Amino acid sequence: EKGTYPHFMLKEIDEQPFVIRNIIQKYQNDDGTVRLDENIREAMKSSDRIYIIAAGTSYHAGLVGKQLIEKIAGRPVEVHIASEFLYNMPLLSENPLFIFISQSGETADLRGVLVEVKEKGYKTLTVTNVPGSTLSREADFTLHTHAGPEIAVASTKAYTAQMAVLTILAVDTANSKGTKLDFDPIQELGIVASAMETLCDQKEKLEQIARDYLSTTRNCFFIGRAADYFVCLEGALKLKEISYIQAEGFAGGELKHGTIALIEDGTPVIAIATQEHVNLSIRGNVKEVAARGANPCIVSMEGLEHDGDAFVIPKVHEYLTSLVTVIPLQLISYYAALHRDCDVDKPRNLAKSVTVE
Ligand code: F6R
Description:
Largest sheet: 5 strands, parallel
Order of helices and strands: HHHEHEHEHEHEHHHEHEEHEEH
Number of strands: 10
Strand order of the largest sheet: 2-1-3-4-5
Mean pLDDT: 96
Bound molecules: fructose -6-phosphate
Helix content: 40-55%
Oligomer: single chain
């Protein structure tokens, strides 16, 4: 039920801090160690390469998940769009582990890959919000994202939950290899939950940003570098699907290789700046588009902000910024859709789960 909320999407955005805390609780023992099925631990340990297969928003979570697993656990990961994988099958390693990320657990594109790789005898793990779902039943193992039912067609809390669970999987793999980490990622997830709460309390400001930048525009670009690029893809998808504004996410350095031709007077460009090592270069990209008339809206992180930034997120660990940055992007999309009189919870042409290829 929506309760006092006008839309499921808004309710589900607001639930994200609770979801993250719930995940920490579900996957942590009282002594602080990770609680995880021994078979999953073993599968992670014995595989020489992980293949993440997903679609849409879950694919975007997979891109972040790759970085988390590679940086925290030191295991190589590839991420593939489910509907492309079978047609563009990469050369597989000797002992691959396939991870299917799916909110619904019913997406046909993923099932096609699952059936094929199971036939080849490879190990499979489904990360899903619906443990009884097809992908969950058919894979060897399941990790539950514990986000609670997601009703709005546009995925919000399932995305952040997927990234949180992948963080925990990465930590467990690092621990079982005896890797010493110089920070505690699970504690950092707690900080993420608090940061999310702070952001959910800033709706008025985000509504104003949506009004200022997106009320009448035909298109919008999201730019970011390094980890921020992945959240740009998700920000653009969210905006497209519920407000019907043509939106694209780009790596900051790619714009000048063609897309900058689309920048006109007043084109909104939402730039994300949460990564210290690329802070100056993304700001350089902002100058390039501003010089061509764009209307830049910079979303940065505490400690890295500059005068004139439109919105600043609280400081969180650099590996986990996507979980936090996406909240203002979700809310900006929500308010943009609202101002444009769009059906927020049930956008045109879309279904909650896509069970045909
Ligand atoms: C976007 C959205 C879709 C889904 C995609 C995969 O907001 O909801 O892009 O993420 O259809 O769905 P699942 O995760 O159920 O496999």
